[in-house]
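Issue: ligand-bound run for nicotinamide-adenine-dinucleotide - logging full I/O for the record.

Environment: standard queue, default settings, no custom constraints.

Inputs:
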Amino acid sequence: MNTQIKSDPTVFVIFGGTGDLNMRKLAPALYNLYLDGWMPKQFSIIGTGRTKYTDEQYRQTLLDGINQFSRSGKADPVKWKAFSESVYYQSSDVKDHESYKEFGTRIEKHAADWKTKPNVIYYMAVSPNFFPIIASNLSKAKLTQDTKRVRVVIEKPFGHDLESAKELNQLLANIFDECQIYRIDHYLGKETVQNIMAFRFANSLFEPLWNRNYIEHVQISVTEQLGMGERGDYYDGSGALRDMIQNHLLQLLCLVAMETPINWESDEVRNRKVEVLRAMRPFTADDVRNSTVRGQYAKGWMEGKEVPGYREEAKVDPQSNTETFAAIKFFVDNWRWQGVPFYLRTGKRLHQSASVITIQFRDVPHKVFPSETSESWAQNRLIISIQPEMSIRLQVQAKRPGLDMILNPVDMVFDYKGTYSNQTPEAYETLLLDTMMGDQTLFMRGDQVESAWELVMPILNTWQNKKSLSFPNYSADSWGPESAEALIARDGFHWFTLPLTSKK
Ligand code: NAD
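Outputs:
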């Protein structure tokens, strides 16, 4: 959470400084923070990667990325020049521990020039198998000791399963204090996601209704039209459960289900979230059979173009058992949520790209109006659209204008675009600023990550050990396999889609 107080002088060391993430997200985010006046007066960005670049060449590649991907459009030449004077490049292999001394020398030089010890943020925008190597080499070069000023940002994926996540946590804990570790889940930096907490805890209206007495079920859908692109090799070793459910979707669930924190301290908020994960019902073998669905897309057509099936995608095993779709029913076993199902679904090559949370309230206890007055009766719903639309809608029943008494659902809408004229910052801007300010609220704590892995492990193990005989089982441009419809239909519900339909 930021106010317009600037952080202390800061040095960013970005491992993976020539990679896709830095080009598309990190560099544009830092530049936009600069444009909006959030960067400290003294800062330095040291990109590092294997490619050989001079500082000047590196600045040019970042500029190309910014011109292409920044939310503020093409860089202004004067402002870019001023910003880029603080950008440097160091070509090195992360395995070469000698090169870390060079980082130390550069940081010391900045400290001497600025006449103060800067914050130092090591950002690991590299393949996860390098996380332990970088952490160990930083430690060997004695670059991690200042627990107040030195921070490390770890990109996703954090572990491949519970065991590897524990191992990585242990390794990091041997080197860093937990207050230095920023495990990033960029979903948590999104405006609409942060607004879930504002909506719940800054209004008196919703909290009394926010429980099993008034809420019938919750749906969280994160759907994508995209297929694999260049990511086939990474994704084939991961899948929808690891790539999306274990982190992004479970984090959204935590925000919906958490208890009210006492204050906005980062540990207080994170304690409330981890309590949700600890209260979630563990999966038995029967639950995995009855409450989970996996899918893999077949070839088909999307927006008039023929697209390959998952097994035909580049760098994907033609016999792959990896799921590109998952739908899972979760329960949170505590007083607030007992018996309320949380349906989570995510997938690729689906009909639409959207991230939406829908909270469906219970029906009225007694229908006063005769059935012919309700053309399309729908229970009250709170619909939180995270992307592409950024809005919160409360769907209520209203009388249609006219002499007849006809009821139908209407939306009370809070729409970001309509309400605020200024541009919304990107999630990475929020999160990078938080790392500078030393605010860990929106980052995952070690126990949070482990609890999320623990929850999904029985599903992961079953899916891995038992090859699906039905793959591929959904066509491109659909809403996933039919069994996903059956999963929710068995409980008398249906998946809400965008634009939202009101079947029930
Ligand atoms: P990438 O393959 O585009 O970039 C990898 C970077 O690592 C390059 O800068 C390369 O020079 C560097 N590198 C590779 N081997 C090296 C070595 N031996 N020594 C020094 N540098 C080396 O990868 P990416 O897409 O930027 O992803 C980086 C990390 O961020 C991954 O963990 C990924 O899961 C995560 N991530 C990426 C995105 C994204 O949109 N690209 C989104 C979320 C998370």
